[in-house]
Amino acid sequence: MEITYYGHSCFLVKGGGKDLLFDPYVTPNELASHIDVDAIPADNIFCSHAHFDHVTDVERIANRTGARVFGCWELYQWFNSKGLKNTFPINPGGKFNFDFGTVKAVIAQHSASLPDGSYGGVASGFVFATNDGNFYYSGDTALTLDMQLIPRFTKVDFAVFPIGDGLTMGVEEAIEAAKMVGVTKVMGVHYDTFGFIVIDKEKAVKDFEKAGIKLFLPAIGETFTI
């Protein structure tokens, strides 16, 4: 599958003939200052949770592209209050079929509040099954044994995990997550954006390699195939 990385936890997957965009946080990210947010395509936007570093550019991109926006019930209501018309609620445990394939929301162990500090619902991850391949985006999460349930329902070809530590999993736990999910290809996200989640990328790649797992750490703006 073809993936474009836009920094932090924002990435685009071309799956099922559609552009699937995740957690748009581009304009405030100094590391992504060379990215034109108004050139990012999207047919569907998935928000793993309500924190500012995952929802900042949702409205701007959705209003331009007409993309359908997915999030937990509280995010769904919040986006509706912002005037977005093409929204869809999905909570952990929920599964729906769309033109791009199937998406199932799963639990993520993480806090979640809206940018104004109000309650933002629960954090979640997403599991996709498409004609182009299957994948799991965990969203911001700690390592949890719930990840063992993923391959019981969907055999995924790769996973996207946070590896910055501090607020989410670090490298060591992400390796264990990959083993639970049953993947040998992982894209790392949620690192380097802020001072407290800067990582040693070379060491991270080597640590994954020792476990028999390929870690992809694309440059911001890079498009690659996994």
Automatic annotation (TrEMBL):
A GO MF term? hydrolase activity
Q: Which SMART domains match?
A: Lactamase_B
In this chain the Metallo-beta-lactamase domain maps to 7-190
Q: Does the keyword GTP-binding apply?
A: no
Ribonucleoprotein as a keyword of this entry, yes or no, is no
Q: Which InterPro entries match?
A: Metallo-B-lactamas, RibonucZ/Hydroxyglut_hydro, UPF0173_UPF0282_UlaG_hydrolase
- List the Pfam families: Lactamase_B_3 (PF13483)
* Record's keyword terms, sorted: Hydrolase
PANTHER family per UniProt? UPF0173 METAL-DEPENDENT HYDROLASE MJ1163, UPF0173 METAL-DEPENDENT HYDROLASE MJ1163-RELATED
Protein name, UniProt field? Metal-dependent hydrolase
Q: Which organism is it from?
A: Flavobacterium agri
